[in-house]
UniProtKB/TrEMBL annotation:
It comes from Trichomonas vaginalis (strain ATCC PRA-98 / G3). It comes from the Eukaryota. Residues 1-28 are annotated as: Disordered. This is Uncharacterized protein.
Length: 120
């Protein structure tokens, strides 16, 4: 049976071959998010304004993501998919809502009514 390699087992020459850690915000994911959010103002987008009216300004990322997932499950044509960046970053999630607003808005009206009915 082979012995596992531990950090101490590597020589200094192995350090040169190890991948260097990228600073936060300099990686490919950050660049992809920056590109997607270019010229997007999340505070003034129609989706965020309407979401605040229906659910309040204190709605969390996880709550928004849950709403998006429910809508994706129930929307058949055209099929919606919540992408990785939108599920991880609130700004991108708001952009996703804005990009798909014409499809999402009717679902939000029904969802808001169902929540109010359940609370009373």
């Amino acid at each position: 049976m082979r012995r596992r390699k531990y950090y101490d087992d590597y020589s200094s020459s192995d350090d040169e071959h190890r991948r260097k850690k990228t600073k936060r915000g300099d990686g490919t994911e950050a660049a992809r998010v920056r590109k997607r959010l270019a010229n997007f103002d999340s505070e003034r987008c129609i989706a965020w304004i309407e979401i605040q009216k229906r659910f309040g300004s204190g709605i969390t990322h996880s709550e928004l993501k849950s709403i998006a997932q429910v809508i994706c499950e129930h929307q058949r044509e055209p099929h919606l998919k919540l992408d990785r960046d939108a599920s991880r970053d609130n700004r991108v999630l708001l952009k996703w809502f804005t990009e798909n607003w014409s499809i999402i808005e009717p679902h939000l009206k029904i969802l808001h009514y169902a929540i109010l009915k359940r609370e009373s």
